[in-house]
Design goal:
Elements (H helix, E strand, L loop, with lengths): L2 H18 L3 H37 L4
Length: 64
């Protein structure tokens, strides 16, 4: 499982748990955790997208 998939899974799990708990404080914390996991996944995904064009440009550059 990739890091992105892992954090998205954790985010989904936290949201599911938040729907099941009755304690408002616990629910809010779980939703905060879900948001944080989602941000981690977005950040990792954005960084991997930034690297791909740079690597592609490097590979296609003529050797001297």
């Amino acid at each position: 499982m990739s890091d992105t998939a892992h954090y998205r899974f954790q985010s989904d799990q936290a949201r599911r748990l938040a729907r099941q708990v009755t304690d408002a404080t616990v629910r809010e914390k779980l939703l905060e955790m879900a948001e944080e996991y989602g941000r981690y996944a977005d950040l990792i995904e954005a960084r991997s997208i930034e690297r791909v064009p740079a690597e592609a440009a490097h590979q296609s550059a003529p050797c001297s």
